[in-house]
Amino acid sequence: MREVAERGTITAAAKALGYTQSAVSRQVAALEQAVGSRLFDRHPGGVRLTTAGRSLLRHAVVAWTRSTRPAGSCGEPRPRVAASASVSSPPPEL
């Protein structure tokens, strides 16, 4: 999202990130669906953040900055981030 906002086009962001334009476009669409709001206004020359997009990006940057700051800096504890994933394989053929 940040790269798209800074570069102004999904194509330029994709190139900078090393992804295809369609992959970045799908990620933007998935993010918009997840938050329930349009984050970018599309126009012929590219994209611009909406008010909701600017707000989300601002909060995301703050959260990222805090999560990557060394523990104890600025008197704030480093937040703990946890994640889990599961992978399953198809059942064996009989």
Label this structure with key terms.
94 residues, mainly alpha, two-stranded antiparallel sheet, 4 helices
Topology-level CATH name? Arc Repressor Mutant, subunit A
Shape: globular
Distance between the termini: 45 Å
Number of domains: 1
User: Strand content of the residues, in percent?
Assistant: 5-15%
The first-level CATH class is given as Mainly Alpha
What is the mean predicted local confidence, pLDDT?
Answer: 84
Structural class: mainly alpha
Strand order across the largest sheet: 1-2
Unreliable residue runs: none
Number of helices: 4
Within CATH, the superfamily carries the name Winged helix-like DNA-binding domain superfamily/Winged helix DNA-binding domain
CATH architecture: Orthogonal Bundle
Present the secondary structure layout.
Elements: H1 2-7, H2 10-17, H3 21-35, E1 40-43, E2 46-49, H4 51-68
Helix pairs in contact: 2-3
What does this structure look like?
The protein is mainly alpha-helical. The protein has one domain (2-71): Arc Repressor Mutant, subunit A (Orthogonal Bundle), CATH 1.10.10. 50% of the residues lie in helices and 9% in strands. The chain is built from 4 helices and 2 strands; from the N terminus they run H-H-H-E-E-H. A two-stranded antiparallel ribbon has the order 1-2. Helix 2 crosses helix 3. It is globular, with a radius of gyration of 18 Å. The N and C termini lie far apart (45 Å). The relative contact order is 0.12.
